[in-house]
Design a protein that fits this description.
single chain; alpha/beta; Rossmann fold; 6-stranded parallel sheet; two-stranded antiparallel ribbon; 5 helices
């Protein structure tokens, strides 16, 4: 699939998986670093409960409230990288604001009831699970005979 236009991206959640920031440590495998590798994706806004400063994203709008991020921007793709308990609510908020593309860290929901509701939405949602790239798993792989 080839994209003919740039997609505007909003990221909700700027911790370990969203921005690679966790307990004063910077992790290289995160959504922001991945998105920056694609010419047709442009991060235009990020949202988190805590203000973060990323030197290479100075022009990106920052929001504390995900509703403001979604209502104040023309977002084509949203990445949800928050605590598990927020995923279901944020998926519904993205749908309310007519976001066309949603990537959500696993799990999509924390209850069976919410999973069933998501399935009924008839909306494609990409679930991300890429822990095999985390340093702890790479180290474990080196030390073990287990194939990941």
């Amino acid at each position: 699939m080839t994209l003919n236009k740039k997609l505007n991206v909003g990221i909700i959640g700027c911790g370990r998986f969203g921005a690679g920031v966790f307990k004063n440590t910077q992790y290289k495998y995160n959504h922001i670093n991945t998105i920056k590798n694609f010419k047709n994706l442009k991060i235009i806004s990020i949202c988190d409960l805590k203000k973060i400063t990323l030197p290479d994203l100075k022009k990106v709008k920052f929001f504390y409230d995900s509703s403001q991020l979604l209502s104040n921007n023309k977002i084509d793709l949203v990445v949800i990288a928050t605590n598990n308990s927020n995923h279901y609510q944020l998926i519904n908020l993205c749908i309310k604001y007519k976001v066309k593309n949603i990537i959500c860290e696993k799990p999509l929901a924390t209850t069976y009831h919410h999973y069933k509701k998501i399935l009924k939405l008839k909306k494609k949602i990409i679930t991300n699970y890429s822990r095999r790239h985390l340093d702890v798993f790479l180290e474990l792989k080196k030390k073990s005979k287990i194939i990941f």
